[in-house]
Amino acid sequence: MSRRSMSELNNHMFLKLNKEEEKKFREWARLNFHQHTDASKIWHPVVRDEWKIIKDELKWKTADEKQLQYEKEYWAKC
């Protein structure tokens, strides 16, 4: 069995969520996010997805902060 189909099979083992339940799961994920902790494979796919979104947001935030610091230092030299 390929990795992709195994992943799809694993996701079928989780409860199907309606929109309200998904919103609650995503809120829970945001409240319980720990930057240096990986999402467990036994967690619901919605929680794992939200943690990935949060980590991506943090990467962009860090990149933006670095750019702002560079610009601040650049203009301070002028």
Description:
It contains three helices and no strands. The longest helix has 33 residues, at 45-77. It is elongated and about 60 Å long. It has one domain (3-77). α2 crosses α3. 71% of the residues lie in helices and 0% in strands. With 78 residues, the chain is mostly helical. The model is unreliable at 1-7 (pLDDT under 50). The chain has helices at residues 3-11, 19-31, 45-77. It starts with a helix and ends with a helix.
Radius of gyration, in Å, reads 18 Å
Based on the structure, what is the oligomeric state of the protein chains? single chain
Counted up, domains total: 1
SSE string: HHH
> What is the beta-strand fraction?
under 5%
What is the structural class?
Answer: mainly alpha
User: pLDDT below 50 for ≥5 consecutive residues: which ranges?
Assistant: 1-7
- CA-to-CA gap between the ends? 61 Å
Summarize model confidence as the mean pLDDT: 82
Shape: elongated
**What's the total count of β strands?**
0
Number of H- or I-type helical stretches: 3
Share of residues in helices: over 70%
Major sheet summary line: none
Which descriptors would you attach to this protein?
78 residues, mainly alpha, disordered N terminus
Could you write a compact summary of the structure shown?
71% of the residues lie in helices and 0% in strands. The chain has helices at 3-11, 19-31, 45-77.
